[in-house]
């Protein structure tokens, strides 16, 4: 997922950020990282 976001930023804004800084950029822009709960195996 983070590689998709990284590629999007590079394509749309012509900016190359280190993948580790993507979360920081999203947080500064007001976004939050939301994931679904994993499903129980039973």
From TrEMBL:
Occurrences of domain Winged helix-turn helix (ranges): 4-41
Protein name per its UniProtKB record: Winged helix-turn-helix domain-containing protein
Organism the protein comes from: Photobacterium piscicola
């Amino acid at each position: 997922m983070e590689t998709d976001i990284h590629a999007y930023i590079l394509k749309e804004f012509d900016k190359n950020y280190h993948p580790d800084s993507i979360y920081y950029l999203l947080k500064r822009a007001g976004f939050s990282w939301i994931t679904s709960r994993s499903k129980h195996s039973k």
